[in-house]
Write a structure and sequence with these properties.
Elements: H1 2-16, H2 29-33, E1 36-37, E2 49-51, H3 55-68, E3 77-82, H4 90-102, E4 110-114, H5 116-126, H6 131-139, H7 164-173, H8 176-186, E5 191-198, E6 203-208, H9 209-213, H10 218-231, E7 241-247, E8 250-258, E9 285-291, H11 306-335, E10 339-344, H12 358-374
Parallel strand pairs: 3-4, 3-9, 4-5, 9-10
Antiparallel strand pairs: 1-7, 2-6, 5-6, 5-8, 7-8
């Protein structure tokens, strides 16, 4: 009966979506591009956000790897990108815990995240001291109730699941103390970025969470949380996140959804995939990518339920995008003689991106942890 209700809800919500007003303040691209999200402006010389396909982003990336980001204690710049993948983000949590236990986990100078990877990114950024908190978020039961159907409300909204559980999860783990910790690391030159997708401009957006955290205001905390929720809000499954902005007195709401719509993970800008840096301009760097899912197709007779169909579709969409983006990032690393490795769920894993049960996420967590300990996780 519950599956039937979900199916009818999804279909009717799409059919009747036009009944909802969806009224928003009118603004244009010029208003959006000059806007101040939550009234915040950059204070450190680095923009709070840039479009993923902007020339500025490519320039910022090159600057970081030339001289912009301080090297780690080992004289190497370590970069890690965390992908989307829904509940399979437990793989990242387990991988980080196991890697810490080996004593070989780097202190990453740059951490990026998309979707569930965005939710994990602040904890990975803050290091091994936050491993247990990250594990609890995925396997402690707090995420088990994320998929609560809207019911009749879906007819007049833009998602079949309620947004409150996801927001409550982020609010629970992202507080003022965490922002202060992120700001302290940002002051050392480290970088924390996550991606959302701006539906109005139809472009991906990279947000500098360190630049936001360093402002230390209630508005900064609200924006930090909203960006994380937006990055993990799968279109159609969850409503988009509306971010308050203003430009020269005009106040309006930007509409953001899952960063995975525009990129599976946030690493080398696409315009640089085939670019060779002049000899001697890039410092020693190691690239790591964590794929919260499988990279190869697997056969499965898919049950005809909303969760399984949606989960299976997300798996396929994510994998196709991941394969292309992995190839581009590896090409950049190989062309410029940089270290590159990625980790992913084993091909025989049966985990679904929308199975938020404690049992499933604990199993995925264990796969990540054991793979880090025995060294089989990296490819």
């Amino acid at each position: 009966m519950r599956a039937l209700v979900l199916s009818l809800t999804a279909c009717l919500a799409m059919a009747l979506g036009a009944c909802a007003s969806g009224a928003r303040t009118s603004f244009d691209l010029q208003d959006r591009d000059g806007a101040r999200p939550m009234g915040l402006v950059a204070r450190t010389g680095h923009p709070i956000r840039v479009y993923l396909d902007a020339e500025d982003r490519a320039a910022l990336f090159q600057q970081a790897f030339r001289e912009g980001v301080p090297l780690g204690p080992d004289g190497v710049l370590d970069f890690i990108a965390l992908s989307g993948g829904g509940s399979n983000g437990a793989f990242t949590a387990g991988l980080m815990k196991g890697w810490s236990e080996t004593g070989e986990r780097p202190d990453f100078e740059v951490v990026t995240g998309v979707s569930t990877g965005a939710l994990a990114a602040p904890f990975v950024f803050l290091g091994a001291d936050y491993d247990d908190e990250l594990a609890e978020a995925y396997t402690g039961g707090a995420a088990a109730g994320l998929l609560q159907p809207q019911g009749i409300g879906a007819f007049f909204g833009s998602g079949i699941y309620k947004p409150q559980p996801l927001r409550a999860l982020v609010d629970r783990y992202v507080d003022a103390a965490l922002l202060r910790a992120v700001a302290a690391e940002y002051a050392k030159g480290r970088v924390l970025l996550v991606a959302t997708t701006d539906l109005d401009s139809q472009r991906g957006v990279s947000w500098d969470l360190g630049a936001i955290a360093t402002q230390g205001t209630p508005e900064a905390l609200e924006l930090f949380r909203s960006v994380l929720v937006a990055s993990a809000s799968i279109p159609g499954a969850f409503p988009p996140v509306l971010i308050q902005s203003d430009n020269a007195g005009l106040q309006f709401e930007e509409m953001h959804v899952d960063g995975g719509v525009t990129t599976p993970f946030l690493a080398v800008p696409e315009t640089l995939w085939s670019f060779r840096e002049p000899s001697g301009t890039l410092r020693a760097a190691r690239f790591y990518v964590v794929i919260n899912g499988r990279t190869n197709p697997s056969f499965e007779i898919t049950r005809d339920t909303p969760q399984r169909v949606l989960g299976r579709s997300i798996d396929i969409l994510l994998r196709a995008s991941i394969i292309t983006t992995l190839a581009g990032n590896r090409a950049f690393a190989d062309t410029n003689d940089l270290f590159f490795r990625y980790a992913a769920l084993p091909d025989d894993s049966e985990a679904s991106a929308l199975d938020f049960s404690v049992e499933s996420m604990s199993a995925v967590y264990d796969i990540g942890r054991q793979g880090a300990i025995d060294g089989t996780a990296w490819r």
